[in-house]
Design goal:
Helix content: 40-55%
Number of helices: 31
Strand content: 5-15%
Shape: elongated
Distance between the termini: 129 Å
C-alpha cells in the first residue's frame, strides 16, 4: 500500500490505554489480527525505521490502523518516545531524556500487570497485554501499581525494526507466567519513579526542588547524588545492581527534592564523614560519584543549577588550592585554609596555630583533638586576621631586649591588654606570648607620649621601677597612670624609646596612691563580724576555693597593699550558706547537737571541714531542718 494512501482501520483493535506508545499499540494490533509487527508494518507500508524512532507520522498511521479518534491519536503521539537524530536523545511528551535512557533492545514488564491484562481483554492471549511507556524508561525499575521489580527480556525484533512487544511477551512471559508471578521480587514504593511519571504527565510541584530542572538532569542528578550518599567515593558504579541503583535514586531524590537546602544537607554530611579521615581533602574524595558525573556536564547549560550548588558548597567547605577546576570554573584564589596550609604560608608552627584557634573559640579543645591538621579549617579572612602576623611576630624575650621592659612589667602590660598578644593569651598565666612589632612600637609611643626631654633628672624624677617602690604603688595602677595619660608629667632621657629612659615624678605617684581609694572591702580579720564563726584562716581557704571575691587595695594611712573580700561576695555567701555557730544561735542548742541534727536530716556540709576548719551548711536546707525539728524545752 502506498504511504500516501489513506489507511483503513483494521477489523480487530483494542482501545488505547493510558501511556501506551505507538510501537506497543501496533504490536497488539498485529497479534490481534494474526500477524507479527514487522509483517503488519510492511503490509501497511509504514516504514519500520519510523516506528522504531517513534516519528509522529508513523504514530498517526498506527492510530489510523487502530481506528482511534482524534483525541486518542494525539495521546498516542504524545506518549510515543521520539528518537532525536541530532544527539541520540529521546523526547517523551514534552520531556527530553538522555541517550540510553529509553530501552529499545529489551522489553521490561510486570508479571502482575500481564496477568491483569489477560483477564481484562479478549482475543488471542498474546494480544491482551499492553505496553506502558514508563516500562521503556530504564530509570523506572519497578511496577508502581504492584510494587515488584520489573522483569527484563530481550526484545523480539528485526534489523532497524521496533521491538515487538506482543511477540516478546508471548515467548518470554506467557509460557511460565505462574512461575514469574511466584518469583516476583517485592520492591518498596518509589517517590522518585512516581515523580518521573508525573513529569511525563505534565505535573509539576512548586515545592519540589527538582521541578525547575529538565527531567533528564533531575534523573541523572538524583542517581549520582544517591550513589555518593550510599557508597564510598571510589566504589565502582559499573558493578551496582538494578536494586542498588534504585535505592541510590530514591536516596538522592529524598535530598534533591528538598531544593538547595536538602542538597546542601547531604553535602555537609559527606564533608563531616571526610573530616574523620586523614590526608588532604579533595572534591572527589569528599563528594564521590556526583562530582565525577557533574564534571562531564561542564558544557551543558541545563546542569547549571546542580553544578552551582555543589560548587558553592565545595568552596565554603573544602580547602581547595588555587587553580583547581571546580566543575568548570578555575579557582582563582584560596577560600579556606587548613592548619597545614596556614603553617606553610605563614611560617608558623602548627601547634601554635592549633592553640590560637582554640583560644579564639573557632574550635573547642575536644574538636581540635579529634581532627588532623588537614581537617581543621579557617577562612582566608580568619587566616589574615589571626595567623598571618604570627609569622613575623616576636616573643617576650625579644620584646624585653628591644624595649628594656622587665619581665614582670611586661607581664602586667600584657594582662592589662596594653600590649595585645597575637596568640590571644593576655590573661593566661605563663603563656608563650607572641607580639606584632607594630603593636610593640605603638605601646612604646603611648608610654612616652607627652614625655619631656630630660638631661639632669631631679631626685624625685625616677624610672617606673624606682617610683613604684618609693610610692608603694601597685604595678598595675602605676602602668595605667603612665599609659592612659593620667600623669601630669613624664620625662625622657636621651632619644631612644627604651623603658629605662622613661621617667615619672615620684611625688605625683605618691599623691595618686594616697588619694586613689580607701579600703572598701572586708578584711579577713573582721569577716566574723559579718559571718559568725568564720575566722581568718577559714575565710582565706574559702576565698581560694572561689567562695569569695577578693580585691587588692591600698590604704592611705598604712601605705601598703592589703587583700580584702568584696562586700558583694560576703553578702552572697551569707544568703546561701550558714555556719554551725549561727545555726546553733538560731536553734538554741549546742554545736554537737546541731551536727547530729543536720546529719539526721540528711543535710551535708557545703564545704570540707578539713579545708575550712568550720562546719558550713546550705542555709535554706539547714534552717528548714532546725525549724521543723524538735526543740529543747
Amino acid at each position: 500500500m502506498p504511504s500516501h494512501s489513506p489507511i483503513q482501520p483494521l477489523g480487530w483493535a483494542h482501545p488505547l490505554q493510558k501511556r501506551e506508545p505507538a510501537s506497543g499499540f501496533a504490536s497488539r494490533l498485529a497479534a490481534l489480527n494474526g500477524v507479527d509487527l514487522p509483517t503488519l508494518m510492511v503490509d501497511m507500508a509504514i516504514p519500520q525505521a519510523d516506528v522504531f524512532c517513534g516519528t509522529e507520522a508513523a504514530a498517526r498511521d498506527i492510530a489510523a490502523l487502530g481506528g482511534l479518534g482524534a483525541a486518542d491519536t494525539d495521546e498516542l503521539v504524545r506518549y510515543t518516545p521520539l528518537r532525536l537524530s541530532a544527539n541520540g536523545s529521546t523526547r517523551v511528551t514534552t520531556e527530553h531524556l538522555d541517550r540510553g535512557t529509553v530501552s529499545r533492545a529489551f522489553i521490561r514488564y510486570c508479571p502482575h500487570c500481564i496477568r491483569e491484562d489477560i483477564e481484562t481483554f479478549k482475543g488471542p492471549e498474546a494480544a491482551r497485554p499492553w505496553q506502558r511507556t514508563e516500562w521503556l524508561i530504564e530509570n523506572i525499575r519497578s511496577c508502581r501499581t504492584h510494587n515488584v521489580w520489573l522483569v527484563r527480556a530481550a526484545a523480539s525484533r528485526g534489523r532497524s525494526a521496533a521491538p515487538d512487544f506482543a511477540a516478546t511477551i508471548s515467548l518470554a512471559a506467557l509460557p511460565n507466567l505462574d512461575t514469574l508471578l511466584r518469583d516476583a521480587v517485592a520492591s518498596p514504593p518509589s517517590a522518585f519513579e512516581d515523580w518521573i511519571v508525573a513529569r511525563l504527565d505534565g505535573t509539576r510541584e512548586p515545592s519540589n526542588g527538582l521541578d525547575d530542572m529538565p527531567l533528564r538532569v533531575g534523573i541523572d542528578f538524583c542517581e549520582a547524588l544517591g550513589v555518593s550518599s550510599l557508597h564510598p567515593p571510589r566504589a565502582g558504579v559499573g558493578k551496582l545492581s538494578v536494586i542498588e541503583w534504585a535505592r541510590a535514586a530514591e536516596e538522592g531524590f529524598g535530598f534533591a527534592s528538598g531544593g538547595e537546602n536538602g542538597i546542601e544537607k547531604l553535602l555537609s554530611r559527606l564533608v563531616e564523614q571526610q573530616n574523620m579521615t586523614r590526608g588532604q581533602m579533595g572534591l572527589f574524595d569528599t563528594y564521590g560519584y556526583v562530582v565525577r558525573r557533574l564534571q562531564r556536564t561542564k558544557g551543558d547549560p541545563d546542569y547549571q543549577k546542580p553544578r552551582s550548588v555543589l560548587r558553592r558548597h565545595a568552596l565554603e567547605a573544602i580547602p581547595l588550592a588555587p587553580g583547581t577546576d571546580v566543575l568548570g570554573e578555575i579557582l582563582d584564589r584560596r577560600r579556606l585554609h587548613t592548619i597545614h596550609t596556614a603553617s606553610l604560608e605563614a611560617g608558623v608552627n602548627v601547634r601554635a596555630i592549633r592553640t590560637l584557634l582554640v583560644r579564639k573559640g573557632l574550635y573547642t579543645a575536644d574538636e581540635a583533638a579529634d581532627l588532623t591538621n588537614h581537617r581543621i579549617k579557617l577562612s582566608v579572612e580568619e587566616f589574615e586576621r589571626e595567623i598571618r602576623r604570627l609569622g613575623d611576630a616576636v616573643n617576650a624575650e625579644t620584646v624585653m631586649q628591644i624595649t628594656g621592659i622587665p619581665r614582670k612589667h611586661l607581664t602586667s602590660l600584657v594582662s592589662l591588654e596594653f600590649l595585645p598578644s597575637l596568640t590571644d593569651s593576655n590573661n593566661i598565666e605563663r603563656a608563650k606570648h607572641r607580639f606584632a612589632r607594630d603593636d610593640v612600637d605603638a605601646l612604646m609611643e603611648r608610654l612616652f607620649n607627652g614625655a619631656e626631654p630630660v638631661t639632669s633628672p631631679t631626685s624625685r624624677q625616677m624610672t617606673i621601677q624606682r617610683a613604684r617602690l618609693s610610692a608603694l604603688a601597685t604595678l598595675d595602677d602605676l602602668l595605667r597612670w603612665v599609659h592612659d595619660g593620667t600623669l601630669r608629667w613624664k620625662g625622657r632621657l636621651g632619644n631612644e624609646l627604651r623603658y629605662e629612659n622613661l621617667l615619672v615624678n615620684a611625688d605625683e605617684i605618691t599623691s595618686l596612691v594616697r588619694s586613689n581609694r580607701e579600703i572598701t572591702g572586708i578584711h579577713y580579720d573582721s569577716v566574723d563580724q559579718f559571718i559568725p564563726g568564720l575566722r581568718r584562716t577559714s575565710a582565706i581557704s574559702l576565698a581560694r576555693q572561689g567562695a569569695f571575691e577578693t580585691v587588692e587595695e591600698f590604704g592611705s594611712r598604712s601605705r601598703r597593699a592589703v587583700s580584702a573580700l568584696t562586700p558583694e561576695s560576703v553578702q552572697a555567701f551569707q544568703e546561701r550558706y550558714i555556719t554551725l555557730v549561727e545555726l546553733c544561735r538560731v536553734g538554741g542548742f549546742a554545736p554537737k547537737r546541731g551536727v547530729n541534727r543536720m546529719r539526721a536530716a540528711g543535710v551535708d556540709p557545703a564545704f570540707s571541714y578539713e579545708t575550712t576548719l568550720v562546719m558550713i551548711y546550705p542555709r535554706a536546707a539547714a534552717l528548714g531542718a532546725v525549724l521543723t525539728g524538735p526543740r529543747k524545752s
